[in-house]
Amino acid sequence: MAMEDVENNSAVVATSTQAGIKKGGDVGDNGACIDRQPDTVVHQAGLNQTAGRGSRSGPGAHAATGIRVLKRNMKRNGSRGCVTRKNRFGSRERDWLKGDTQRGCVCLYGGTVDPQPPASGPQASSTPQTDLKLVLCSTTTTVEELCAQRDGQGLYVQLHGDLVRRLDPTERPLQMVYDYLAAMGYADPVRVQQEAANSDLSCLIRFYSERPVNADQQERTLLKGVFSVRKGKSQLHKWAERQVILCGTCLIVASVKDSLTGKMHILPLVGGKVEEVKRRQHCLMFSSAGSQAQTYFVNFDTLADYQRWHRQASKVVSQTVSLVDLSCYSLEAVPEYLFYSQDITHLNLRHNFMSLQGPGGLLNLPRFSQLKSLNLCHNRLGVFPECVCEILTLTELNLSCNSLQTVPVQIGNLQSLQTLSLDGNHLSSLPEGLGGLSQLNSLGLSFNNFSHIPDVLERLSAVDKLAMAGNRVESLELGTLAKMSHLKNIDLRLNGLRWVKSDNLEAVSQVTQLDLRDNCLDSLDLSSISNLETLHCQRNQMETLTLSGFTLRMLHASSNRLTTVNIYPVPNQLTHMDLSQNLLDYLPDWVCDCRKIEMLDLTHNLLSELPSRLLNSLSLRKLLAGNNRLQRVPDLLDHIPLEALDLQHNKLAELPESLFYKALNLKYLNVSANALESIPPSSLSEESLSTLQELYLTGNSLNENCGALLVGHQNLRVLHIAYNQLLSFPASKLSKLEQLEELNLSGNKLKTIPSTVSSCKRLHTLIAHSNHITVFPEILSLPEIKLVDLSCNELTEIQLPDSLPATLQELDLTGNSSLMLEHKTLNLFSHITTLKLDQKSTTAAGDSLSTSTPWNHGYSEMSGQRNKLCVSVLAVDRFGDSVEACYGIFDGDRNEEVPRLLQCTMGDVLCEELQHSSVDSVYMCNTFITSHRKLGMAGQKLGASALLCYIHHEPSDPGGNFSLTVANVGTCQAVLCRDGRPVPLSKVYSLENCTEEMERVKLCKAIITEDNKVSGVTCCSRLLGCSYLSPWVLPKPWVHTEPLCSQDEFLILGNRALFERVSYQEAVCTVQTMRDPRAAAKKLCSLAQSYGCKDNIEAVVVSLNISEDSCTCEPPVPTAETRGPPTALVPVSVAPGPTDPATLSSSSGIVSEFNSETSASEVGSEAGSTASDEHPSSGPASRPERRCSLHPATTLCGIMVPGSVGAGTHPGLFQRQPSSATFSSNQSDNGLDSDDEAPLEGVISNGSKLEVEVDIHCCAFQLRSGAPESPKDLDLEKRGSDYPNGKMRRQNSVVVSATNGCLLAVCGREIADLKKSPSTSSLFGKKLSNGSVVAPEDSHNLIEVALEAPKKKSGYFTAPAQQDPEDQLIVPPSLEQEVREQLRSQNTLVSVPPLPSIPPSLKDPVWDHPHPPAFASNLVPCPGPVPILQQEVYDTAL
Asked: How far is CA 737 from CA 592, 733, 750, in A?
């Protein structure tokens, strides 16, 4: 991929010959999979990373208005799918950009390929590559100048891979790019210049030298060719070569071959037939509809032509109306052949760039004599096309979003017009001529600039629907509405409406539906609107509401400050009323008198009681009264039709005794978060008629006696009884719940789950974490089981059937410290999509040389009712080169691609941005915007909310207190617990919660739908991705830095679904009661589900122990002289906390999670035969100085493999006799001590076998190539991390696999050899096998080498069985300390003082660490001399 420097100063640089660039998915520097087009530059066409920093001095090589064209023909590096970082601009190009930020580069693409082809693989590698020219110009260079320089006809721009627009001659391409980047959020002109030269930007904005050819578009707009044609079914007609055209709704056959002159035969196809002629190959019969139907036979030359014509014609004949849809085709004019289709009645031209002039321009649209519906929205017209007013047959006209300033008087010519949409323009008045449209019944004026309802509406006697949302109507006079006697439906949302009043007593009798949502009303009196049927007034500031109840049917008044609701007379037609999230402390009497009320929502009020008459209503079917202050529920007097009852978050101590046998229709009951000690019986007799299907009892004080009361609910499908006081669940009772599908028993005191659970044949979800379960339940024989969560229990072993159900998708066994899995078990588990396991340590606490961070974390994710996990977590307890941490959550709502991409790349981007700036608002903002760009094509249509938390020292005071910098877009939130109180740190970027964002989006003329979504897509105004919604939706984040202090206990990160159901205060109180961050996160998610959440939920809990006395430094110990060859020995210290990973992955550091499409068998490689029995000479190593996290050491880093004896690095402790067991020698041939009792990273020891773990979610932000440059850089590799139960995890810098019983440390030299190896070169740059799209840096390539190692088809990482050595020293746990002391006393080679205990300052009273810490890693001596070692360290199986 070599790029030649420019050799001359001429305006146009000679171009090199075109190299065949294969079409496929490139992987950019960010690690995101960017399905580039074949014409994409595959090098980063920008400055190097240091060029954009510091002073910009030096002479400019060219004038500011000059143009230089560089034609680059790039070639990819063999099997490498990623870019080569060495390919940059040449020196001449850099000189052009230096010193003047108004200069830059525009990438100019050819047009011989589709503008956005689908993602392609090797099968498309033969696609030809189009030319790419790098045009060096300035911000003042116009399109006209560029075209004159290159003898071009014009330039085209494409935004977000969407429409392609021809640029005007006066437009300035480089300035367009700069403006686009500035709108995204880049503030530094130098950074803007760098980003403008980045080839990744082509997924957001791209320039073409000619209009790109889109074969699919051409097929759908026009098909033509010369084929053999025969008219009629009679054999008397002969076949003849004719020009045939399929356009619009007609088949056009020319009377002369190869010419369109003369007579044209038109065959209307709507309602007709297109059939295959079996007697002839590739022949179709086209027939029109009606009694005078005509028929043409067309014989095609190829199968491809036949299929293309058949497909398109079939769409036309299936239509019931003559509709032609040409939307989103970037058209400047309609095809000229379309005018032959005179039967067209509906023409859709939205999202194009239609011009007035030309054969197919708007001026010719009146040629359609039967046109009734015309859609021209989103065409950048700028002015109202008066030619449209000549189409007198129009009944529907849509000119929305065209930046129209005025409407011409000629609009009055359209006497047949019934629907007129002018939304999203800049209109502030309407012409008087509009009043003459006597048939107009619907008028759309939303999101314009009207300050009042136009007076012309008084003359529009037929208009019954008026949409004026998003205007500037601040006051509404009801007397004005009285003059418009025809208006029935009025939409005045989002107007800033402050008051609605009536100066006279005149009744407004015609209005039936009124929408006043999202305004600024503090009170509302609509009693004069006597026939009002539906009122929407949510999200105002109303304290009182007065209505007429004569015809009222639906009332939506949530999210106000209502204390009084007056409706007179009693609304006997009222069926639906929503008064949630108000300040009501009592329920008005008239509510109980409503005879037809079916749904009543009273959640989040101040109610202390419910009227008995309300609950005994004979019409009420759904009552939501959660989050109030209810202390009792009135008794039921008779049978009621109630179907759903929500009473969660109250103060109920009991439920009515007759609830279940008086409410026989009750199917849903939620009484979570109360004080219930029992539940009522299902019936008075043994026979129950209960139809209850969903029962939520979480967060009460129920005991095991409630199990017997559940038996009568034999239709129960969902049962949540988590966080109660259950000691057991009656086995005989559980067996009778045969319809049960989802069971949540978490947070109780269960020691076992009854074996009768196997009777629940429909059970697909069992959640029972945070109990004391010791025996794995008999659930794996259930035919429909999908999810099993038994984390945070006391499991010791698992008895499995011979095979697992194919439906099992997720199994969580983390937090079971005593669980030992047999090899057969692991084999069976290998086919589970998501398997979460702990890594175990066999050592005792206190035996490690530890370095602790003042924080650790746990996380939990739960999929919603769509059974698709669209959230991801980023968790790194050790981030960067000092004591820092990074945590993030990403919520894709309904897509999982963007969250996974952000999870894999955002840590890398943050680390890179920290090298550019130390200002929090700058590096965080740039991190989000750059991550947005690096999403590539995936981010064009898909998006995600994102939250990133970075714990660090202030740059001005590296040794001072920690600070927490939080940045977010979308609806993910962070809450800090300080002195037991919640401190929100993030900003919710949703249109409902953020007034300034709503105003910004309105000013950009976005269409906000009734559910407050931008263009009906998302409720968020800031997202990563969804670039096609720009400029309405931006990636610029909210950034906030909060200094941390000793009063800060923990940090909670959650997505929208979590905090919609769990308040900040409840979340803080919930976490305070838990001892383990992982269990706390799981509890938060379980509570949200029990409270009724159906979406994906994610929570991260980070325990903080920020204090001044957290230092655990230890003075250096004198060392003994070593014998034998010198070795480079560097310690790896491990923290005692249960969760302290150095990972950037989907795992939280406390689990080993095999996720996505990769099974365990695909990830692992077989661990091979015996280790070497040789005994290389080595002397004792010096014991390192022990350092704390606040004062890290600055020694050089060596090659590290975790897993050494806790008592120093002496190889003589706990020696085993030579045998054929794994790692049986004193030191294996790679220098690893065989005496290590702590498990190796990624290697699980099961007796005589090895299981090897490879986590594919690795990132490169902690990797450095070449020799370390500073002690700060070196400190990263020195530091280890603890895994729960002592398992070390070094995902980012060490990946361990096994082959033939040894470990291989592969440094930079070996990496280069791997790339050259024929057996491994094809692995570099491949997409990871689990579908992740991590950047194929060197670390990922080596991981893929491990993935491609031979593996058993049956699954897990199987090693050949070996005999355990009979002479192995086995020390009982009770004697282990005594033996250790004796061995220490016998050790004469090195003096090892006893390890100090962890200072009390590191032990938090709440966040106790239940698991023993990991041992410090031993050192691996490097062969040969001891140079300064590279920091890119890998272990892999070759």
From this structure: 37, 7, 19
